[in-house]
Amino acid sequence: MREEETYMINNSKRYIVGVILIAALAISGCDKKDNPDDSTVWGQADATEVSINTKIPGRLVDLYVQEGVRVHKGDVLAQVDAREVSAMNAAAKAKISAAKAARLQAEANLDQARRDLARYEELYRAGAISRSMYENLQSKCDILAAACEQAEANVEASTEAFNQSAVNVGETVITAPFDGIVTTKYVDAGAMVSTGMPIVGLQDPSKNWVNFKVKETDLDKYKLNSEVTLYGRNKDLQVKGTIVDISQKPNFATYRATSERGDDQDIITYNVKVQVNDPRIHPGMRFRM
Questions:
Q1: CATH superfamily membership of 83-171
Q2: C-alpha angle 103-106-112 in degrees, rounded to nearest 5
Q3: For the segment 132-164, what is each residue's pLDDT rounded down to a tens digit?
Q4: Helices (H), strands (E): how many in the chain?
Q5: Torsion of CA 129, 134, 140, 145, to 10 degrees
Q6: Closest Cα to residue 113, out of 140, 92, 84, 86?
């Protein structure tokens, strides 16, 4: 009886060990399936995003877009109150007219003085007038010539001021510089805005890339300007990209984390940027390489 019990116990132990081994192999197989290569790295997608700023201070009278809206290049995003700059533009235009009128008068005065000088020169040579009188008229011509030059400079300056004021009027209309998606709305209609203040954030989904944190031990596997294939979490999503940058500076956060864990030998990572420019990619998506 004892032999049978011993036999049954031994068989039970063998059975349990066998089950444990099978489970371990199954788990190991799953791990290998999920992680086909220890050198596989995961990265996160990002895209070009810029802040659309105002160049003209004033009140934001209209904001025509909301977050998530897709816009096209040239679409009007917002409008700054243009009354003040429009008034400055009208004043600059009036100054051009005044400057041109002053230039015409200066030219007329110079022409008359030169005619007088030519006539006085004959009288001077004939001895009919004194030398000092003749020289005074010469000086007058020189002064009037300088006045003409100043009048011309005033016309140019007023024209430049008018052109700049016209640009300022145009800058009150804030437009999209490229096709994109509005990601952020920084202010609301009615707010006072200052020069350089961001109005909305605009993302260009056609210019995107994926950043990978590659361990120093694997960095030599990646070369600049080489083409790579990236695989998304969706098994059907595969994209081609080009390695455009390999950071020369290690990632400090990773270095510090490994140091704090007390590892004998820290392994730091470097950023590898893969330019993709694929419209299927959205910021935040994860890819493996």
A1: Helix hairpin bin (1.10.287.470)
A2: 140
A3: 999 999 999 999 999 999 999 999 999 999 999
A4: 4, 12
A5: 130
A6: 140
